[in-house]
Amino acid sequence: MNKLFLIGLLINLLVVTPSSAGSVGDAAPSCSNLTTLDGTENYDLTKFQGKVVYVDFWASWCPPCIRSFPFMNQLQHDLKDQGLHVVAINLDEKLVDAEEFITKYPVEISIASDPESQCAKDFGVMAMPSSYLVDRKGVIRYIHLGFRLGEVGELRTIIEHVLNEPL
Fold first, then answer.
1. Cα–Cα–Cα angle for 10, 85, 99, nearest 5°?
2. Strand ranges (E), 19-114
3. In 10 A of CB 72, how many CB atoms?
4. With a cut of 50, which residues of the chain have pLDDT below it?
């Protein structure tokens, strides 16, 4: 068997296995340890309760993350009035790396830092970037590992579907 096929199969099994952290159907972790990049404000994901939240874990050294930021900016711009909020959680060891990234690739989304990587552990992050779609009730509805431009249409359709669900 092809090694890439086996890796893909393993990732798919890990994503849908109910016993793993941050699985589809689980309540999203609150991640109460998040801060702004400058460390001046603490907040957690429960502040977005009642909204559909696209939670993206990223790092400055991640090439696919560079391509994902314009997509997330566009999502926030197009769908915020329908109740979407995009939060990008940085996992860099040095915050200066994240700050330089944001200067180079401007954002229109919420940026948070996970200084202890506890939120990433609670979600069960396995790849960079990893995205989790959380519905208005706080339940993880979809998990996407990596970022490929060819999947943007499918991701947007899934997000719009969750946004249009009745409460």
1. 80
2. 34-35, 42-43, 52-58, 84-90, 110-113
3. 23
4. 1-19
- 15 falls within a domain: no
The predicted pLDDT at position 42 comes to 86
Q: Following DSSP, what letter does each residue of 86-106 receive, concatenated?
A: EEEEE--SSHHHHHHHHHHS-
pLDDT at residue 48, as a whole number: 92
Structurally, the chain folds into a number of domains equal to 1
Report yes or no on 45 lying in a domain: yes
Which structure tokens are listed for 107? 């954002």
The verdict on residue 137 lying in a domain is yes
So what's the pLDDT on residue 17? 37
Task: Report the CATH number at residue 89.
Answer: 3.40.30.10
Q: What is the pTM of this model?
A: 0.86
